Amino acid sequence: MNVIAVVAFDRIHPFHLSVPCLVFGEEQPSAELPPCEVRVCTPGATPIITTAGFTVSTGHGLDEVAGASMVIVPSWPDPELPAPPEIIDAVRTAHQGGARVVGLCLGAFVVADTGLLADRPAATHWKWADVFARRFPDVRLDRESLYVDDGDIVTSAGTTAAIDTCLHLLRRQHGAELANRVARRLVTPPHREGGQAQFIEHPLPATGSRHPLAGTLRWAIEHLAEDLTVDRLATHAAMSRRTFTRHFRATVGTGVSTWVATQRIVMAQRLLETGDHTIERIADQCGFGSAVTMREQFARTLGTTPSAYRKTFRWPPHAADNRRGGVDLNRG
Question: Is residue 297 part of a domain?
Fold first, then answer.
């Protein structure tokens, strides 16, 4: 029996807990391979209370983690709170027994608490990257990637990256056909490379907000095809250049040119994923100026080309894209 142990605890978010259960727990690989069982393991095998207020009772304790082939820590409630010794010992013992250890989102903090990430690469959610770097200076933190697969230890960025990571692990264990079938059931793109950058989209002030930049930020997103200089945005906000620059950085956490470049990439991603416009037209719509500049920005930011991105992430997939590596994504 191939056992995957999911470590759970009080105040776990239901969605985080559900991700490994949905990816690994419902589709059996094939009759030729040993069956897979997902066991949600809690301290003392006691019921846990989720952030949604309901109780989860599984009957599996942390003592069962040691016999698993893979151990997944799907999250952690507080990045400043060290994991308790019983969880650390269970994860470390399983790893010593040959298990692959996976930390999804803030679960990477728990894996780091075990000491297993010392002098090794890791990913975590961008929002808590500074906390991670402060708490674990001996870990080589990758702030950009969706997930980092370092063989026996795998860590991921935020919530949706956890799905990508689990699909990646399923593909690695049982092949693309099963992973693609599960992705179709979850209505999610079948494959995103771990090296793809996390996109840090700082939330804009709410519509109708009295925030001094609320209207200007939304106006900028609606006019990405135009030349969005600092002076033009400052004029729209009715501020001096200096005042605008100060408010802008305080609001979105970065400079104007970096933010505009990110918004153009985000818009281009959406157009590539959902439409059939040419690369040249998308480059024009997003304000890159030329397809060459757009390709350069994609290569620098995402490590891929617009055409390759479209082929991988267009959703729903087009018939021409549905055969990759001999696997028909429409099957199953």
Answer: yes
The pairing of strands 36-42 and 60-61 is parallel
Regions of the chain where pLDDT drops below 50: 200-203, 207, 319-332
Closest CA to 16 of 161, 113, 121, 135: 161
DSSP SS3 for 17: helix
Pairing of strands 140-141, 121-122: parallel
Cβ atoms of 170 and 134 closer than 8 Å = no
For 74, other C-beta atoms within 10 Å of its C-beta total: 29
CA–CA separation, 108 vs 155, rounded Å?
6
Where do we find the tokens 């930011």? 301
- Report residue 25 as tokens: 């727990």
Indicate if the alpha-carbon torsion angle 225, 226, 227, 232 is positive or negative.
negative
170 touches 23 (CB < 8 A): yes
State the pLDDT at residue 315.
Answer: 60
Structural domain containing residue 236: 214-313
pTM for this model (two decimals): 0.64
Q: What span, in angstroms and rounded, lies between the C-alpha atoms of 323 and 30?
A: 21
Residue 122, in any domain of the structure: yes
Phi/psi region, residue 148 (left: phi>0; alpha: psi -120 to 50; beta: rest), is beta
Distances (CA, A) of 323 to 175, 177, 184, 304: 14, 11, 14, 20
C-alpha span between 141 and 207 (Å, rounded): 35
Q: First and final CA of the chain: distance in angstroms?
A: 24
Q: Is the dihedral of CA 170, 172, 175, 181 positive or negative?
A: positive
Crossing angle of helices 256-274 and 306-313, in 10° steps, is: 50
Number of domains comprising the chain: 2
Which CATH number does the domain housing residue 263 bear?
A: 1.10.10.60
CB 156 within 8 A of CB 146: yes
Q: Which of 208, 234, 297, 289 is nearest to 261 (CA)?
A: 297
Query: Are 218 and 182 contained in the same domain?
Result: no
